[in-house]
Structure formats: C-alpha cells, structure tokens
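Thread: Newbie trying to understand structure tokens

Hi all, I'm a second-year student working on a class project, and my supervisor (Dr. K.) asked me to get a predicted structure for one chain before our next meeting. I've only ever worked with sequences, so writing a 3D structure as a token string is new to me. If someone could post the tokens and maybe explain what I'm looking at, I'd be very grateful. Here's the chain:
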Amino acid sequence: MTAHPLHLAVALDAAGWHPAAWRAEDARPAELFGADYWADLVTEAERGLLDFVTFEDALGMQSAAFHRPDDRVDQVRGSLDAVLLAARVAPLTTRIGLVPTANVTHTEPFHVSTGIATLDYASTGRAGLRPQIASRAADAAHFGRRTTPQLTDEDVRDPERIGRRLSPLFDEAADAVEAARRLWDSWEDDAEIRDAATGRFIDRDKVHHIDFSGEHFSVRGPAITPRPPQGQPPVMSLAHAGVPYEFAARAADAVWVTPHDRAGAAAVLAQVDAAVRRTGRDTRARPLLRFAEVLVFLDAEPGAAARRKARLDELDGAELGSDAEVFTGTPGELADLLLDWREAGLDGFRLRPGALPHDLLGITRGLVPELQRRGAFRTAYDATTLRGHLRLPRPESRYARAGRTGR
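---
Reply by user tm_fold:
Sure, no problem. This is what the structure looks like when written as tokens:
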C-alpha cells in the first residue's frame, strides 16, 4: 500500500447517470422509490470498501436542461429526500460514509445542521454534507418566499458566467455552512452529564448560543442536537468555475472537480489553489481534499462498455453529455486513468456509475480489486468514521477552545 491510498467514492443517482439507464436490461426502475433498492446499492459500495457514497437531491423535478424544467416523460422523474434516505440506510451499514445533498438556498441552516447531526448519530459518525444552491429559478416557486436569478441559454454554455450570475447564492451558502458548523460546535463534547442521582442531564454552561449574524440571516442557537460524533461532519462541494472554487475554499473540507484529462486536472487544481490563497485559508490547519469526477461505464470485455453506452444513447435519442469526463472501458483501463490523473495532485475520485447496479458492480468488483493489486487502495477499512477515512482530524468545539461559558 502506498503512503496515501487513493480515496474512492460513488455518486448514486436514480437508475444511474445516463438518462436512459432505467431502461437497461438489468435496471430496477420499479424499485427506485423503495428502501431496499438503495440499501442494496450502499451495502454493495461498502463491500467495495469505498470511502463514501453520495445521494443526489434537488428541490424541483429532474430536467434535461440545467436551468429550467422540461416536460419529458421518457426519463426518470421524481426522487426521495437525500438526508432522510441516508438516515434510512445508515443502520444497515457499519463503515461507509454517507453524504447527502441538502439545498441551502431555500432550507434554513438550522434545519440542515440538525438533519446532518442526526444522520451522524444514526450512522455513528459517518455523515457528511454536500450543500447545494438552487440554480434553477423555477424552484423558488415551491416556497414562495423569494426569487433567484433565471439563467439563460447563453449563461449555461459558460461555467464562469453561471458562477458570476449565481455568486450571491454562493455567498449565502458559505454563511449557511458557517452557521451549521457553529451549531455543531454549540454543544461542547462533555455538555451531557446524564446524572440521574443529581438530576442534571446537561451542563448548561457548556451549551452555547452561536449568535451568528450575516447578510442573509441570523441564527442564535444553540442546536437542539448534541455535538455530532465526528464533531463536525465533513462538508463537500462540486465546483466547475472560479466562484464555486472560492466557495469550496471558504466552506468545504473536500471539493469535487470535473477535468477531462490529466493536464486539465492540473489546471483546475491550480485554480483551486488560487482560490484558497484568495480566501486566506491555511490548508495545514484545514486541509482541502481534491476529488475528480468521472462518469463511468465498466465491463470486463473490451468494447462492451462502449457498446452498452451506445445502446443507451440510442434509447435516449442523443449522445450522453456531461460536465464530467465520460469513460467507457475495462476496470484495468479505468485504473490506469485514475492513477495517471492522480499525479496531477488529486486525492481521490467520485465516480458516477452510468447505469445502476451494473456500473457500481464494475467499480466494487472490478476496479477495486485492480487498484488493490497495484497497492493503490485499501484492502480493509482502518477507520470507523468518515473523517477517519478521509484522514481528517476531529476538531474541538470552537467554544471549548475559546473557553466561553454562559448562555
């Protein structure tokens, strides 16, 4: 095993990341809204010793367009709440990290913080958070309390332009994450006494108001949930351009980026590093892990994955498009790609299975053994928490560090 084994995660979404994946021969479309389907996927990912799985979510119906709803009925529509879904599968697993998406544009940070803290308890220290802004203006109509920018067809051709248009939402998201982190810290680790003899359940001097006040909202606190087992569940974000890179530098513990080759990975990581410098983040004190995204179709037989993808493209009526690199090939060829890209400075990869469960099995039963043979991936879990898998230290409550007391 190398000194720093590769981090691997899988992004779970409906029947897979190809819009026609639900029509594949081995798909399970009738089970997409059942707990057993998701439990099977997550337990398979855990058998593959992956660091974590992620659960996609949105506040509006899925759409073939990034920025507006559509009326298509030939693609999967409808989803389950990601945080609740992660909590449902948590007791069925023991080691793998669980990272749901939670919208922070239309959801109060107090609720997001409480949901993720509860998930951390349900999973005994394996929760993470992927905060997401509401990039579609139509989603605001589900809440009726505000409007958000309407992206145009011209906007969505340029990730930098999207970032500039949505910059105020990223600023708000950074405040939401900061409020959530303070709420996680608002109970010191030893605030619970639970002494029936004396009648003291908590030490009130170790439960703190956070008194967060920002441009977008204020949160007094404290949290209603005691400090999570991890202290602070890891925060992760997907980024394609300068503004979201700065959001990651300000707010995240890991950033997911979307290069298309090794040179592109190096260029993107240079932009991430520049964002870190602009924000003044000390990565020695607060490491920022860098993952690349790859959408994968895997088969042991050479050429089979490309043929399978071509059939799905035919069913959908268009060639698959993606922000991430689309890979078709064998597990060995994917291992070559990952280890090559890693040399650009990546810590790991979040893989998007093109079709489920087929390509998840290709990862856990094909790619993982191949990486293990090359000494690039673990052969057993050596930690019990998500922070442990990611080699992130457990932080002390900021209020304990500051020696603050009182209400």
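A couple of things are worth pointing out once you decode it. Residues 2 and 396 are 30 Å apart (CA to CA). The longest strand covers residues 289-298. Feel free to ask follow-ups in this thread.
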